[in-house]
Amino acid sequence: MDARQILKEHLTKSVELTDAQFDGFYACFKHESFRKGQTLIREGDAVTREYFVLSGCLKTYFLNDELKMTILQFAMPTWWASDYMALYNHCKAAVMVDCVSNAEVLSISADDRERMCHEVEAIGHFFRWRTNRGFAALQKRLLSFMTNDTKQRYEDLLAQYPMLFQLVPKHLIASYLGVSRETVSRLYHASR
C-alpha cells in the first residue's frame, strides 16, 4: 500500500473527507525515509514537524543526567511522534525521537497542520480525536506505573501491542517499562 492510501485509511477511520480535502491535506506532507538508529529530533532542537509512521518503528525518549534512557513512546505504523511540548510551545526539544528500525514516515509542519485544521473542520476533528486518544493512553500508562507491578505492566503491554515485541529489542522494552533487561528476559521466558 502506498503512503497516500495508508494516511487516507487512517483518517477515514474517524472522519470523512472529500477527495479534494484529502488531496489538500496530503499535499502538506513530506515523505521521508530514515535508517535504523537515525535521529529525527535531538534534545535542544527547534521542533517544527510531527511524524506519521508508514513503516518501521520510532521511539521517543529522554536521557537523564546519568545518561539512563527512559522511553516515553514507541511509534509503530499509523502512529504519530514528535516532541509535542516543543512543537506547540515553540521551545527547544526536551526529548529525542529516533528510529528503532528503518522507517518510512510522512511529516507535516505544525503551521500546515494548524492551517488545515482551520480550513477543514473534519481535519480539526481528527486531530482533536487523536490528541484525546493519546491523552487517554498516557493516563492509562501513568496509572499502570502507579498501581501495577512489573509483571502486570509487561503482560498488559504484550496483550495490547503484541507486534511491538517483534519490532523492538528487549532492552528498549525494559526502558519503556522502567526495569532492567534481565527482568524483561525473565518475564519473557516465564510467559512462554
Describe the structure in your own words:
The protein is α+β, with helices and mostly antiparallel strands. The protein has a domain at 3-122: Jelly Rolls. 49% of the residues lie in helices and 21% in strands. The chain has helices at residues 3-12, 19-26, 84-89, 110-119, 121-147, 150-160, 164-167, 170-177, 181-190; strands at residues 30-34, 39-41, 49-55, 58-63, 69-75, 80-81, 96-99, 103-109. The strands form 2 sheets. It has a 4-stranded antiparallel β-sheet. Strand 4 (58-63) and strand 5 form a beta hairpin. The protein is globular, with a radius of gyration of 17 Å. The two termini are 34 Å apart.
Helix content: 40-55%
- Give the uncertain stretches in residue-range form: none
CATH topology of the domain at 3-122: Jelly Rolls
Radius of gyration: 17 Å
CATH structural architecture of the domain at 3-122: Sandwich
Taking the sheet with the most strands, its summary is: 4 strands, antiparallel
Shape: globular
In terms of DSSP E residues, the strand content is 15-25%
Number of helices: 9
Number of beta strands: 8
Class computed from helices, strands and strand pairing: alpha+beta
What sequence of helices (H) and strands (E) makes up the elements?
A: HHEEEEEEHEEHHHHHH
**On the 0-100 scale, what is the average pLDDT?**
93
Strand order of the largest sheet: 1-8-3-6
CATH homologous group name of the domain at 3-122: Jelly Rolls
Distance linking N and C termini = 34 Å
The CATH class assignment of the domain at 3-122 is Mainly Beta
Protein name: Cyclic nucleotide-binding protein
InterPro entries: cNMP-bd_dom, cNMP-bd_dom_sf, RmlC-like_jellyroll
Organism: Dyadobacter beijingensis
Pfam family, one: cNMP_binding
